[in-house]
Every structure is written in structure tokens, then in C-alpha cells.
Amino acid sequence: MNKKQFVTKSSLQPAPKVLVSCRDKDGKDNALAVGYCGNCSYDPPMVMVGIVPSRHSYQMVKDTKCFVVNLPTKDYQKEFDYLGSVSARDEDKLAKMNIKTADASKVNAPILVDCPVNIECTVVDSIMTGSHEMFIGKIENINADENIVNEDGSIDYSKLDLI
Ligand SMILES: Cc1cc2nc3c(=O)[nH]c(=O)nc-3n(C[C@H](O)[C@H](O)[C@H](O)COP(=O)(O)O)c2cc1C
């Protein structure tokens, strides 16, 4: 066997690329790029997102205990890169990029309207794994563009060119 043995970070690939949007306790909205995320229960449906405590969004999610996972498509790459490299501590990212938002239906956070799928979650638990705090989000509602929803209510991901 000719294998090198070592430990490295982010070893599961491809990693998902999502935008997590949130709102602070004063009503200010924000979003950040997240790669540490995944499905973590189907009954009840839940997802988890990992946020590093130094992110501006971290305290927002801690305070309001909810977030929205938005799935960006390739035509949203510029916005994704910006939201994943600039902090709301330094500027109002959503205003700067003219990002269209709307209130989520079931949680106190914004959805990013131009992402075709927006998953509204409430935080039911969290665990500090190391660098990230993994927030377990119970899915309260999903908003999806009408043209990608199958008759049985599932999402046709083959129609999406996700980042
Ligand atoms: C591809 C990509 C994946 C990222 N994944 C994460 C992640 O899983 N968790 C995290 O806290 N930050 C992640 N980041 C970094 C944040 O999105 C970035 O630090 C952002 O500017 C934080 O914004 P905020 O300070 O306004 O919350 C990622 C960035 C990129 C480009």
C-alpha cells in the first residue's frame, strides 16, 4: 500500500457552498458564505451550519436563534465571494451589493430573494466542535422558485446550477 498518512482540514469534498442570512436583535440584516454545513436529520428535517465565533454573524445567530440557508447559483458567484470575504463589521454588505431580501415567513431573519431555495431554520441546539460552532437548525419552512418544485413537493435540484 502506497498511501501517505496525515490529517488535513476540510477533507470532505466537494463542500457545499451556501449563504446563511441572519438578523441581529436590533433588526439589522447580514449574510455570510458557509461551507461547513449539511443535512443532519430527516425526521424532523434539520440542517446544520458551522460559524466561527469571530464572524459578525455569529452573535446574531446566537441572539436570535434562527437563520436562513440560501442556495446560490453560479450567476450569484460575485455576491457569494463578496459575502464570504467582507465582514458586516466593516460595511453593510447587503446594501453594498444591492442584495434583494425579504422577510422569512416563519423565522426572524431575511431570505435572499435571488437564491432559488431559502431554508428557514430555528436553532434547536449547537455544539462547539473546534474552530466552528455547529448550529443545528430545525427546518420551519422552505421557499423555492416555482419552476423547480416537483408535483410531489420535492425540489428538482437538476434544474439548478448551484455554486
Ligand atoms: C467558500 C467559503 C466558505 C466559507 N465557509 C465558512 C464557514 O463554514 N463558516 C464560517 O464561519 N465562515 C466561512 N467562510 C468565511 C465567511 O463567510 C467570511 O469570514 C465572512 O466575511 C463573514 O462575514 P461576517 O463577519 O459579516 O459574518 C467561508 C468563506 C468562503 C469564501
From TrEMBL:
Residues 11-158 form the Flavin reductase like domain. GO terms for molecular function: FMN binding; oxidoreductase activity, acting on the CH-NH group of donors, NAD or NADP as acceptor. Keywords: Flavoprotein. Coiled coil: none annotated. Its cofactor is FMN. Belongs to the flavoredoxin family. This is Flavin reductase family protein. It comes from Vallitalea guaymasensis. The lineage of its organism: Bacteria, Bacillati, Bacillota, Clostridia, Lachnospirales.
